[in-house]
Amino acid sequence: MRISSRVIGGVVVAALLTQLTACGSIFFPDRRGQIDGKIDPMIAVLDAVGLLFYVIPGLIAFGVDFATGAIYFPPGKTAQIAPEKLREAIGADGKVDNSKLQAILESELGRSFPLNDPRLIQHKGSVQQLAMYGLIPAA
């Protein structure tokens, strides 16, 4: 009987300690220091699970994650590609070949983009924008 109470006590102490340190701060320490942003649902759900089982530690987990900013997604990252490399995707008629553009983006950025998606909204650029990148309008 004494061993089982020690095991149960150890499990309860371990569970309380993990909830007191907050999930987002443990899983994503690089997110600390953010002020605002979009809330990561995975961290919010993990904090809510702590709230369901242990009310006080769950509230502390939410408080710590909000106070440190670990509950927010990291800010958007940007990437740039030299205009000279993008010229390969422009055809002789001045239209952009989506398959060539997708291949360039995948090779340069290491990510795939759904350029063939029918929901994709394409905006036309102005002559000034093309001149800014050193491109000559052709059409």
Automatic annotation (TrEMBL):
The chain crosses the membrane at residues 7-28, 48-73. Keywords: Membrane, Transmembrane, Transmembrane helix. The keyword Membrane applies. This is Polyribonucleotide nucleotidyltransferase.
